[in-house]
Amino acid sequence: MHRMKILITGINGFIGTHLTEAIISRTDWQIQGFDIASDNLAPFENAANFSFKKGDIFKDMDWLEEQVKESDIVIPLAGIAKPAYYLEKPVWTFELDFEQNLKMVRLCAKYKKRIIFPSTSEVYGMSSEEVLKEDESPLITGPIAKMRWIYSCSKQMMDRMIFAYGQEEGLEFTLFRPFNWVGPRLDTFKDAKEHKARSITQMIYDVLYTGKISLVNGGEQRRSFTWVGDGIDGLMAIIENKDGKASGEIFNLGCPSNNYSIKELAQMLIEEMKKFPCYKEKADAAVLDIIPASSYYGKTYDDMQNRVPSIEKMEKLLGWKPKTGMRELLYKTVEWYAVREEEKN
User: Which of 26, 70, 122, 340 is labelled catalytic?
Assistant: First the structure.
């Protein structure tokens, strides 16, 4: 019997490592991983159904083409997903997120392979819809001078190209849009030290090393936070594609009930940190510091006030919905860092 083979680029990242963990523990699917770094992959290197090549997507297209040929499914996770990076390196963001990944899409079309592509909740941009629907909500971005939108536009163009290949050449695809997935390995403290981490990692670091959490523009903007494990369960259902129900579809993978402001997130995170002896003293002393976005991110930053996903389609077609509440996902994330802190000491 044929064993499914999956090629995953960007496998060393946040989604890649959690997906690898799920595939290895639950299935016999073969994984061929590819990334420029491998520091998060040590737990998997001895697994029988895992192999890895270290390389650069800008340079190793011949090797990648061979792998696409041999695979059943391609999941191109290589990309820039941190606002600080796409503000600082917009050209590189476009080159990686769009140009290099478009090569992967074209290879999948050429060799008739299924592609599962990570779109993003950012594509909805400043959409005024209260609940964002995959096939209906307009995708609205800000002015050209606001550089944060280059990431959203790169992903949106990729979504449109994948759809176009589906229509013209019969490319089999599924797009998924993660809404603020959080959990272990989201970002490193090194990222946080340089103000380049996403919200939760940045906040944990700031409590421990600066004593204050910076709230950009007061932290009034709201997001729908999703436990990475719930997101991965959804992604596994997409890969499995029971009765072909995921084919040609776009799915939001988010948790509408975990919709909180960044300020509320900071307050809850501090409370969860107090539950861990190694963090209690610092968490007790932590303060919230309100700063303007221009002084934190620079003039090219822009933001949207709220993002709530519709997950009706995911529930109806694939029977998925998130299970993890806000307090639990914050506790589990802090616990992961705390365990490492205690191991160090």
Answer: 122
Closest CA to 107 of 155, 137, 73, 156: 73
**Reduced 3-state DSSP string for 204-272:** HHHHHHCCEEEEEHHHCCEEECEEHHHHHHHHHHHHHCHHHCCCCEEEEECCHHHEEEHHHHHHHHHHH
Is residue 112 within 8 Å of residue 69, measured between CB atoms?
Answer: no
User: Is 236 exposed, middle or buried, given 0-12, 13-18 or 19+ CB atoms closer than 10 A?
Assistant: middle
The answer to whether the beta carbons of residues 223 and 259 sit under 8 Å apart is yes
Active-site position among 130, 185, 307, 335: 307
Measured between alpha carbons, how far is 208 from 226 in angstroms, rounded to an integer? 24
Do the Cβ atoms of 250 and 179 come closer than 8 Å?
no
Half-sphere exposure of 84 (CA within 13 A, CB side): 14
> In a structure prediction context, what are the per-residue pLDDT tens digits for the chain, which is 345 residues long?
679 999 999 999 999 999 999 999 999 999 999 999 999 999 999 999 999 999 999 999 999 999 999 999 999 999 987 777 778 889 999 999 999 999 999 999 999 999 999 999 999 999 889 999 999 999 999 899 888 899 999 999 999 999 999 999 999 999 999 999 999 998 888 888 888 888 899 999 999 999 999 887 788 889 999 999 999 999 999 999 999 999 999 999 999 999 999 999 999 999 999 999 999 999 999 999 887 766 555 565 556 779 999 999 999 999 999 999 999 999 999 999 998 877 776
DSSP 113: -
**Max intra-chain CA distance, the chain:** 60
Active site residue 122: yes
Task: Return phi, psi of residue 281, to 5°.
Answer: -60, -45
How far is the first Cα of the chain from the last one, in angstroms, to the nearest whole number?
49
Report the alpha-carbon distance of residue 143 to residue 310 in Å, rounded.
Answer: 26
Q: Reduced to 3 DSSP states, what percent helix, strand and coil does the chain have, rounded to the nearest 5?
A: 50, 15, 35
Sequence letter at residue 234:
G
